[in-house]
Amino acid sequence: MSTSSLFREELAKIPTDVRKQVDMSWAIADKIDALLKNRGMSHKEFARLMGKTEPEVSRWVGGTHNFTIRTLAKISVVLGEDLITI
Fold first, then answer.
1. pLDDT confidence band for 11 (50 / 70 / 90)
2. How far is it, in rounded angstroms, from Cα 70 to Cα 86?
3. Which of 25, 68, 24 is nearest to 50 (CA)?
4. Which residue segments constitute the domains of the chain, with CATH numbers given?
């Protein structure tokens, strides 16, 4: 079995909801990163405005953080744009 076949086989075993969660986490991280770049804001400045540490913000834009609604709301307020819409 080739490596790519094995990879596809293993990927197919991941539950759909888990794949969706990962996709959403990456999309939120990408949006935060894009908003910071558009505003010329460093992770350090954003962390200060959020009352967080710079390493925590770096984890946020790394795409693996499980955000609370409260944190998403605060990020939206600090950056002046909704991260998610319902």
1. confident
2. 15
3. 68
4. 16-79 (1.10.260.40)
